[in-house]
Amino acid sequence: MNEAEHAAYIEKLRQSGIRVDREGRFIHEGAEVTHEGLKRALFRWLDRLPAPDGRHVLRLDERRFAYLDVDDTPLVVRAARVDAAGAIWLALSDGAEERLDPSTLTVDAAGTLRASVRGGRLEARLASSALAALSDLLTELPDGQPTVRTPAGLVAIARR
User: Fold this and answer.
1) What's the predicted TM-score (pTM) here?
2) I want to staple 105 with a disulfide (CB 3.0 to 4.6 A). Which of 28, 111, 155, 157 is the partner?
3) What CATH number is given to the structural domain containing 16?
4) Torsion 50-160-90-39 (CA) sign
5) Within a 10 A sphere around the Cβ of 20, how many other Cβ atoms?
6) How many structural domains is the chain composed of?
7) Distance between CA atoms of 64 and 6, rounded to whole angstroms?
8) Predicted confidence band at 118 (pLDDT cuts at 50, 70, 90)?
């Protein structure tokens, strides 16, 4: 097998057939992955290739990874809370809780909010339950610019 054939072979092996649906569930061969241990492992392996490729992957290490399809975002913010200091904490679909960096919030034309998580490597869509918890902090300026209220002041939410 020459180098080009070997590269094509490896590329074919990296097609996992796994996707993450809009609700943050792993789907394989049309069925939801329900084994808790396997789901925890898949969430732990979630990553993204660096630009310009940027594809979502399940990564074991730098050389060993498999591609996965993502319907919207690989993670979903299921809940949110504001602590006594005013920091916003996000409960992610992988079971982790992360502090929100408000400057990473974006909103699309449909009004869907997303935030960067895992140190900016991945994106998470805010589910309606998380939006409801933050509703008192979300506002709009007179010019229509969406913002989030933080202890440091209003932070603009970037439009996509």
Assistant:
1) 0.89
2) 157
3) 3.10.540
4) negative
5) 24
6) 2
7) 15
8) very high
